[in-house]
């Protein structure tokens, strides 16, 4: 086999290192020059639970349709006082008392979530401190409740993630004060607190519209569905088999319009249906090879607005007769037509520019409708974003833009729709850590860290910065004192982001990564950050760890004693036993099939031990450790269920616990320092289980 030379360039410091084997790399001087040891190792800024207050306050998250159930760990008390406020209120109001460590709050408001806290009256008549709060709310109704509880729920559920939709974001629409988001093959219903209160499963909605009576219609492939308020759905329109649907619009009387643009056949029809799904009329647009990628019905006169992807023009047609009559047209800046909406007299067209220097997504704002000029406004320039649809936020008047690639919703500020900012980001949990005060930090693949208090209530979010103009996707996260360390990946580089637990003081440096496997995991032990690395040798692949000291006085690697395999496709986990050993989980292939393997490296003896190789046949999903030497593996599949196995350092089985619901698809796991409990994240929820 021909020898492959692997070289690395750290452009930040103009540092170049190369070796014939690809084994030698000196990344740390460059990294430490970018990441200084500021931030310290003090206490996190958000306080822990008051010692004298009730602990583990839990408020139900859309588990019921008419009440929120609150529970907490009991303490010696004559009674408990329960307090509530909305997230938009400043002060708590007492809503009841209980002699037991639970309380039921009757709620009818689906519009928002509430914060609940508990105070104890001690046996000698004194008041304890107020507990930390938890957030709770109700489902939209009983029908939505049933859908939600069958979708990643179960008795082990600890919380639903805020904005907990998962997957590519296709479209977004307001439904009164609530919000509809199509993502990952489902449509999610969010309240004003951005908590999920309903779901329609199996609907990939390219476009959604609502009428004056709050009926919801969704274009999905060659079908139009009506989405009912109880989270059920029905197909009401089947478009012709030869159609190529592009957009869905609605007029003030509730009639539906669907545009199609088939460039191969030259068809450019507009279909008009009643809200019951009956075909009322269809038109061919004047001219040839039109591409009505976006349409809208003007609310003032019922005319049809068409953004043509062929001519890059905006047309207005009178469609009161059998043939569309052109009333006006305007030039659109050259670019792929994405979608169109209106607010007041303003017409807003979303495009993706076809030319340099910035082929990003833009809004074209016709500020006086068809009578005036237009201006080009950036949505998310320079980020290679993929805006799929736009709509108007009924609460603020902002323009919502659904970004498929990033999995979030951008909001562009009214009345001129600039600047734009990331408003709603879906969940894609990868890693969980906790600080000394037991606050949770959850890293999401979509480049976001969410911070939760010890009860699981949402506190704040942090978006990973860009590096050299490119977005960073999350890979792994560790914590040391009051500092978070995040490994991530851009299109070109593997990076390490350092940020305080209060989400200030961020800095970025480069991590060494191989030319083949670029997903770099990290571990922290004894004041050092360790990162895994995969390289290509003469006849096989190899992996080892690099490290650098957080205070900047030490760096190195274990390249002289790597783990070798015929092919290593990816490194899946790097964990420490907080003594001298590290556990590596890899996806690899020897002479047989692809397998998930687990190996142990002793940093003192420099010896590797295979704990589970190609012959194990176990479907390992995740690997983690506690602070007292325990090793934990998540095993199984979505079809057959998962289990958590506790192991010793030699991989001996110390006990197993089944994960309660086969609905749970485990994305990541966190085990408490003492190994007593674990938190497992699905794309939508966080679950707590007790360990053996």
Quick tags:
692 residues, mainly beta, Immunoglobulin-like, four-stranded antiparallel beta sheet, 50% strand, disordered N terminus, signal
Describe this structure in words.
2% of the residues lie in helices and 50% in strands. It is built from two helices and 58 strands. The longest helix has 8 residues, at 142-149. With 692 residues, it is mainly β. It is globular, with a radius of gyration of 28 Å. Strands 43, 44, 45, 46 and 47 form a five-stranded antiparallel sheet that branches. The protein has a four-stranded antiparallel sheet with strand order 6-5-8-9, with no helix packed on it. Strands 10-58-57-56 form a four-stranded antiparallel sheet, with no helix packed on it. It has a domain at 55-136: Immunoglobulins (Immunoglobulin-like, Sandwich), CATH 2.60.40.10.
> Remind me, CATH topology of the domain at 55-136?
Immunoglobulin-like
Q: How many DSSP H or I helices?
A: 2
CATH class category name of the domain at 55-136: Mainly Beta
- Which spans of ≥5 residues are poorly predicted at pLDDT below 50? 1-44
**Separation of the first and last Cα atoms:** 49 Å
CATH fourth-tier homologous superfamily of the domain at 55-136:
Immunoglobulins
Helix content: under 10%
The number of strands is: 58
Q: What characterizes the major β-sheet? A: 5 strands, antiparallel
| Arithmetic mean of pLDDT | 88
Strand pairing plus helix content: what structural class? mainly beta
